[in-house]
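Hi team, as promised in this morning's meeting, here are the two structures we talked about. I've kept the exact order from the run log so nobody has to guess. The first one is mostly here for context; it's the second one we should focus on when we meet again. Sequence first, then the predicted structure tokens.
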Amino acid sequence: MPNIQIVTDSCAHFLNAHFVEQNPITIIPNKIRIGGRTYLEGIDLTSEEAVRLIAHEQFTPVVTSPTESEFAEVYHRLAATSDAIISIHPSQHFYPSWANGLAAAQQIGGHCETAVIDSQTLSVGQAMLVRVAATAISEGASVEEVIRKVRGAVERIYSIFYVETVNSLLHNKIISGSHAILGAMLGIKPFLTIEGGYLTPMEKVRTRAQAIERLVEFVVEFTEIDDVVILQNKPHMSEQTRMIQDRLALEFPNRYFPYTLYNPSLAALIGTDATGVVILETEMEEIDDGF
């Protein structure tokens, strides 16, 4: 069985830290600047601390991805004892992690294949792809098969977010100033989706009740789900999450819908006042048309 190592950055948000410890996964932290101080995401800044700090700052935090040299250092270390490295990163339209990893991979030659993959998402969606890779490795898949499974899963990650405060969306040019002003005048809040690696406004709602209804409708559209997570802006279950879980329990009586406080890298993009759902749809089996 080949020795395959997984590399990712702290944009990937795992619900279970033990999962990372139990698998061949290396996480390189982002640097996050909040209020004049720089932190290493996931090392000296937890998601709970980040949301609290960001909520009290006037300016949107600045996220700095691992550099080419930081990726190269990790790749060289792993390559010395590995057959392959699979490096999974947030969408290149959010952060430059993928580009930095790709440049670093070109420095690795010889026996260790290095595949650098743009997840076209981030946060728990990116972590879901890491999980796909780790599961395939544990099942003894070849390097080519692991890469195929991860790239296939990229197309099956779906995300939707309801955002109540639009300052970060304005700063990151996800919505325009005119849309923000119109939304404030009409009392409407944006829904966002990740499509083609971009955060894109898709519709608007007026109330939290309407937002919850739309989030539930989004999940119900899927008949086969491999993985699903509710993202919220509080460390403990929010009222919105409780209502979503209650509604989904009627639609999926045998399924649990976990929740988590989303991580700083995502908060820097959408702010600290959002609720979302991320789904990994089950891979459809190929249909044999032969007789």
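And here is the second protein, the one for discussion:
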Amino acid sequence: MQKIFVLDTNVLLHDPMALNAFHEHKVVVPMTVLEELDDIKDRRDKGVSREARIAINLMEKALENASPKEIQEGVSLTSTATPGGVFAVFPDQIIRDNSNIPFLDGNPSHANDNRIINVALQLQDEHPDQVVCLVTKDINMRLKAKGSGLAHVEDYRKDKVLDDIDLLSKGYQKIEGSFWADIGEVTTTSGAGGAMHVISADALPDAHPNMFIVDGEGFVGYITSIEDGKITLRDRSVDGLMHKQVWGLSPRNLEQAMALELLQDPDVDLVVLNGPAGSGKTLLALACGLQAILEDKRYSKMIVARSTPPIAEDIGFLPGTEEEKMAPWLAAFEDNLEVLHSGDDSPLSSIEYVKERANIQFKSLNFMRGRSFNNTFIIIDEAQALTQFQLKSIITRCGADSKIIVLGNLAQIDNKYINPLTSGLTALVEKVKGFEHAGIMQIAGIERSRLAAFAEENL
């Protein structure tokens, strides 16, 4: 049976393409939502205004040939993603007075939320045999709707790629004892990069490209390809990985060592590093970027950016360059540059010299959209607060011969509409793990200090 979904404004801002996410069901957008989108589309904060305009344009396209009566009753969505889907606009400014419906009053501070809830209540009364569901990312609004008698209220779940965050891919698999004990036929060849082993894909059903296999006897295998039912692993060892040094930096644990392998692999264009504060994500990315630009000459510049709370917050019109305005948000990178050059005779001079030679540019994510970065080493920090749509708009800026590093900590999300299961970072990990030019590593160890480790585990 066709269901009726009433969308809140925050759903369309979170995913401007949400209209196409409900398949064969009916999607109702109250007039109040259109009014809120109209107010938001002209804001100076370019991120959220952009999403509002995309949502408005999509709705306009769906309704362009419909009559006013058809718009209120529902028009068919022709997108292949929504076969049989229907879209309607509800004129909630003329909701009828019905004593049978416990309408919320027009509390001035919550008037729009109440009007949207009232739309769902009226539709529930008019269609008692159908499921009428309010979809909103606002927790308090969901509670209000349930308390007002609405039977079905849900969060927007299209961006929920996992049922449990513990199922998120770590980028490696640990095996007790010897990995080779349960492996059947193996073909081994020698090469410049070390021994290569080819085994049956049935031996590792959950394997994906650029994943590591770690056993209890010191063997580390790096999966370089999966094709034709075969897995090819590059033979690595714990000792070999732990003795690697990049820009004077040596790994302190195996996860950091495996992350360095991904960061230095020229065939990996996208690396996602997930882990708690103090695990070394930023330091590793920065060291590998400097090595790749100044020593290996693989890139011409480094772009460093991060989300600000909120991502689309305007950096202002006071005097100062974009880099100067972003300095408070990107102080962590300055701190890590100091760590990498703390042993120099003149650390401050070394840092300024490296920033100039490596052409390090600090950018606001707002102003990365619409650009194309070629031959560039890109670092995106604090990505856990970004939606899938926002991350996509940033990653698609990556041009030819570029590498992008996405860093995040799912335990530190400060976006009220995002949780670890709906974060763009979680979706990115799950969607790119099968891509042959992407790598993932979850770094669990905290190496900043014993105090930081205690705080992360106990506070």
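Starting points for discussion:
DSSP finds 15 helices and 18 strands in the chain.
The longest helix spans residues 46-63.
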